Amino acid sequence: MDTSTAAPAAPAPAATPAFPLKLTARAVEQVKAVQKQQGFEGYYLSIRVAPAGCSGFGYDLNLVKDISANDVVGEQDGIRLVTDALSQQYLAGTEVDYVVGTTAAGFKFENPNAKSTCGCGTSFST
């Protein structure tokens, strides 16, 4: 009979919640191109919801080097993603695409939480 006492098992790490949104292949390609062109490889793509526009909320995209301890982080196809806890609830289930039209190009958000959007498409309400 073995009377030695085994060290207690270390607790399992807490499961990381899934990042609230997904990028399409075109969006991934565009983010990587901008990171390379601007010298921001390895930076986080920060996607947040902020008060804006005529409908109440808008999307804020930036490439950032540093994040805060309370930020929600994820990764997709080599792109490090970050948002804050408040934005996370508004972004849940959102898909971000990069579209090129005849007059403009930019990121397009398909957000299932948006109950309405403004006429120019830059803001939304929940």
Task: Indicate the topology.
Blueprint (H helix, E strand, L loop, with lengths): L20 E3 L1 H14 L5 E9 L3 E9 L7 E5 L2 E5 L1 H7 L2 E7 L4 E6 L5 E2 L5 E3 L1
Parallel strand pairs: 1-6, 2-5
Antiparallel strand pairs: 2-3, 3-9, 4-5, 6-7, 8-9
Note down, in words, how this protein is organized.
This protein has 126 residues and is α+β, with helices and mostly antiparallel strands. The chain has one domain (21-118): Hypothetical Protein Aq_1857, Chain: A (Sandwich). The chain is 17% helix and 39% strand. A six-stranded mixed beta sheet has the order 4-5-2-3-9-8. Strand 8 (116-117) and strand 9 form a beta hairpin. The protein is globular, with a radius of gyration of 19 Å. 17% of the residues are buried. Mean pLDDT is 81; it is low at 8-16.
When the domains are counted, the total is 1
Sketch the topology as an H/E string, one letter per element. Answer: EHEEEEHEEEE
Which CATH architecture is right?
Sandwich
Tell me roughly what share of residues is in helical segments: 10-25%
Please count the beta strands (DSSP E, at least 2 residues each): 9
Features:
126 residues, single chain, six-stranded mixed sheet, 2 helices, Hypothetical Protein Aq_1857, Chain: A, three-stranded mixed sheet, 39% strand, alpha+beta, globular
Characterize this entry briefly.
With 126 residues, the chain is α+β, with helices and mostly antiparallel strands. It is built from two helices and nine strands; from the N terminus they run E-H-E-E-E-E-H-E-E-E-E.
